[in-house]
Write a structure and sequence with these properties.
The complex is a heterodimer of chains A (515) and B (326). Chain A is built from 19 helices and 24 strands. Chain A is of the alpha/beta class and 515 residues long. Chain A has three domains: 8-244, P-loop containing nucleotide triphosphate hydrolases (Rossmann fold), CATH 3.40.50.300; 264-337 and 422-514, Rossmann fold, CATH 3.40.50.300; 349-421, no CATH class. With 326 residues, chain B is mostly helical. Chain B is built from 13 helices and two strands, in the order ααααααββααααααα. Classes of the chains: A alpha/beta (515), B mainly alpha (326).
């Protein structure tokens, strides 16, 4: 198999955006019947490489050959035509159209010049079944689906095009463990059918399970290609960032169980059918994790504390006193001092076209102003502190925040809330799609904030993070807390077992089967 | 969820508009001194279809997340053109109708080309082109006048079999010949897609530019059909500035009333037609209640506000406040 002639070959591809070089003489060869993993920090050039391949951006130099013939793609449509289909990290679904409409979107079946809805529906159902997502109704509107279902639709859409080369860019970042295993089975079958697959992920265990070979990117170039399994995790990470992997998580302080009043407490919280009688407390200096499969009510729980949900029943206490938080504006007031780092930084966290400075100040404008006028000097000094504290890499404070890399954008979201010095920090999967280096900085920061006395409630879909960062983990299942894990009890096995709501032995088997 | 629920969810806006129209029309006819007669229906439909055509035109552009502030002026321009061209023998009249429709399509195509290739905002583009179209109309008809083939005009504004208003039949035919194929074609779907999320549409390799161009051009054509009908009703052409502006603004109201989202990607021209008919009926309610015509704009505005708020009732049921912003 190793000798199979490459289907697609890229040679000496370079691409610059203004003064920033995104790709520098990058090479890549993709062979049929193989799963090729691409690794690298955010900003290493992976996304640009894929965009070149998929016809989204044109390279400045370099050549690309498909089946030995030189090709160049002027648009995504041209790349699709040639059999290259990409599942993008940023979903490419049309929110107002139905699932079926979306799946056949690039080449709908036609009768008498009009779209044949019966045939369309059949194709959609086949594609969904093929992706292992037959539970999604083809007539449902995409915008009504949760994120994990959207990703399944995105994958089904790619499969419906019968690609020769399938590119998956962080395609599993929002998927539940059950979906991931279904998708993996599909990908392995496609490989055996001779499809070439490119797989980009930040999750090492996924790459280990799937990939035949791996290519590591750093600073816009491919630095190494090796057969999967021939390098250890720490070697790989070192190639990516040149840092030791063992320092990924900061040490947890020894916690004595104390009776001090929790900073944040929820009693018997219920909301529609998503939250069911949840009680929990977070003390000062504590990092409490929320675990479980995606979509078990974790997001709603954070929104409930932050005053976004109407019709919430139960009691919320801050420093032992019952409070009623009617809106995010109320939640951030000094007497409560709450901050929420949202899941989707691009829509809920940032105003992308506005500058870094403006974005940093938004949550704290009332503190920075006198009589409605912003005090520029105070603003500047606070912003400088934040940029330094979080090591935000930006060409300046007055460039649009959308121009920063994903990791730095996320830092801005966090910094904007730290400007208020919150005592309660809620985080909704803050490291999704962020590079390893930035993740490590975030873990350090979380611990630092906790040590300074903040109460932190932290939802993550990444089990390693929950194990490495949290003092306690509450595992949610179907809107209730199924299990509380403390200290050394927080293991991958325990997390998976309680997330799937099954007993220990079965969980061990499930884990063994997926490893 | 059951099958029909998906259908209802998809057609919610259209059904709501239909409901509002039926209620308004019942109030109207039951208070009309003559009651529900063929004559009353004919008059109502003749008034209604004018706005219905312009609202259909507006829908096509709004679906792509644009807005066309020149539809009213295309309507007026084609009215003036028709008052010159749609005359004479059968063949001359047919040629005239074709020429008027082609001019409307050309106006729409100009809008589309500027928006797509010039990358200008639709709102600014169409304010400017709208002024140009009105300028041309004024040159064509500095004073009201002209004429039209009266046989054709009477046939299309009269009644079929003594009961069915011909104008309503024409509207139905246009829906079947223009809207239904468009909404089910690849271009139509691309128009919806580019209104809903242009980036995602581009990434999916959809023909965005062709779809938008088709939407603007068809919008011009539909406005021209409206202009033809205006000529058939009035027998003359008139470059009436106020009327053009009113039609533009009313078309936006009708579109919203018809459940078409101003953010694009959602709604249907059929909803907009019911929106237009409902809007017209609201305007006429005053006459059957025998109020002073001075009250008409105020009354019309209040009823419109009320009707549009009906579509927002769903917000009271929203339990997650983030959904307010979607």
């Amino acid at each position: 198999m190793n000798e199979a002639a490459p289907l697609l070959r890229m040679e000496g591809i370079s691409k610059r955006y203004g003064g920033v070089r995104a790709l520098e003489r990058a090479d890549l060869a993709v062979a049929p019947g193989r799963i090729h993993a691409i690794l690298g920090e955010n900003g290493a050039g992976k996304s640009t490489l894929i965009k070149v391949m998929a016809g989204v951006v044109a390279p400045d130099e370099g050549r690309m050959t498909l089946d030995g013939k030189e090709v160049s793609f002027a648009s995504p449509a041209a790349a699709n035509e040639a059999g290259i289909v990409c599942v993008f990290q940023e979903l490419s679904l049309i929110p107002d159209l139905s699932v079926a409409d979306n799946i056949v979107i690039s080449d709908p079946p036609k009768r008498f010049g009009m779209i044949d809805r019966t045939a369309q529906r059949r194709i959609a159902m086949e594609a969904l079944a093929r992706a292992g997502a037959a539970d999604i109704h083809p007539q449902a509107l995409v915008k009504d689906l949760p994120l994990s279902r959207m990703q399944m639709v995105e994958i089904a859409k790619a499969l419906a095009r019968k690609p020769r080369i399938l590119i998956l860019d962080e395609a599993t970042s929002a998927l539940t463990a059950a979906d991931v295993s279904k998708i993996f089975a599909v990908l392995k079958r496609l490989r055996s059918e001779g499809m070439a697959l490119l797989y980009i992920s930040h999750r090492m265990n996924e790459i280990e399970e799937l990939a035949d070979e791996c290519t590591v990117f750093r600073n816009g170039s491919n630095v190494a290609t090796y057969a999967a399994g021939s390098k250890s995790d720490s070697e790989v990470v070192e190639m990516m960032i040149g840092r030791e992997y063992s320092h990924a998580f900061p040490a947890k302080p020894d916690r004595k169980t104390s009776d001090e009043t929790p900073v944040l407490e929820g009693r018997n919280l219920s909301w529609t059918n998503r939250l069911d009688d949840i009680s929990l407390s977070v003390r000062a200096g504590e990092v409490v994790g929320l675990g479980g499969l995606d979509g078990q009510g974790q997001r709603e729980l954070l929104l409930a504390f932050f005053g976004v949900l109407r019709g919430l029943t139960g009691e919320v206490l801050v420093n032992g006193k019952p409070v009623s938080i009617a809106s995010p504006a109320a939640a951030r007031q000094d007497e409560i001092g709450m901050a929420l780092i949202p899941e989707d930084r691009k829509t809920e966290g940032l105003m992308l076209p506005m500058t870094v400075r403006e974005n940093l100040s938004f949550a704290a404008l009332d503190r920075l102003s006198k009589g409605g006028v912003i005090d520029r000097a105070t603003e500047q000094s606070l912003i400088d502190d934040m940029v330094k504290l979080l090591a935000i890499k930006t060409a300046g404070l007055d460039i649009p925040v959308g121009a920063l890399s994903g990791g730095n954008q996320q830092k801005v979201v966090i910094a904007k809330w730290l400007m208020r010095q919150p005592r309660i920090i809620l985080l909704n999967d803050p490291t999704r799609g962020i590079d390893v280096g930035t993740k490590q900085e975030m873990y350090q920061l979380l611990r630092k904030l906790a040590d300074a006395g903040a109460a932190i409630l932290f939802y993550s879909t990444d089990y390693d993070e929950l194990i490495g960062c949290c003092d306690r983990v509450l595992v949610l299942y179907d809107g209730t807390i199924k299990r509380e894990l403390v200290g050394a009890e927080i293991t991958e096995r325990a997390l998976i077992a309680s997330a799937l709501n099954i007993q220990g032995e079965e969980a061990a088997m499930a884990e063994g089967a997926s490893a | 969820m059951k099958e029909w629920r998906f259908w209802v969810a998809e057609q919610r806006g259209t059904l709501l508009a239909l409901g509002i129209f039926i209620v308004m029309f019942i109030i109207y006819t039951s208070n009309h001194p003559a009651g529900l007669t063929a004559n009353v229906v004919q008059t109502a439909s003749n008034k209604g279809v004018l706005l219905a055509f312009v609202a259909m035109a507006q829908t096509l552009v709004v679906l792509t997340a644009g807005i066309d502030l020149s539809v009213g002026m295309i309507f007026i321009l084609t009215n003036c053109l028709a008052s010159w061209l749609v005359v004479g023998t059968g063949i001359e009249t047919a040629l005239g109708v074709t020429a008027v429709l082609a001019s409307g399509a050309l106006c729409g195509a100009i809008n589309g080309a500027i928006v797509i290739f010039g990358r200008l905002q639709p709102i600014v583009t169409t304010i400017a082109t709208g002024a140009v179209y009105f300028g041309v109309a004024l040159l064509l008809r500095p004073f009201p006048g002209g004429s039209v083939n009266e046989d054709l005009a009477d046939a299309l504004t009269g009644r079929l079999f003594g009961v069915v208003p011909a104008s309503l039949v024409t509207l139905l035919a246009v829906v079947l010949i223009v809207w239904v194929p468009f909404s089910r074609s690849v271009l139509g779907r691309a128009a919806y897609a580019s209104g809903s999320s242009e980036v995602a549409a581009y990434m999916s390799g959809m023909p965005i530019r062709r779809a938008k161009f088709a939407a603007y051009t068809l919008a011009g054509t539909l406005a021209a059909i409206g202009g033809l009908f205006l000529t058939f009703f009035t027998y003359t052409g008139e470059a009436a500035y106020a009327s053009g502006n009113a039609y533009t603004l009313f078309s936006i109201a009708a579109v919203v009333l018809g459940g078409v989202s101003l953010y694009g990607g959602r709604g249907s021209a059929i909803g907009a037609i019911f929106g237009a008919l409902a809007f017209r009926t609201i305007g006429d309610l005053l006459f059957v209640f025998d109020f002073d015509p001075l009250w008409q704009p105020l009354f019309q505005g209040v009823v419109l506000l009320f009707a549009v708020s009906l579509g927002a009732f769903g917000l009271f049921r929203v339990r997650n406040k983030l959904e307010w912003f979607q």
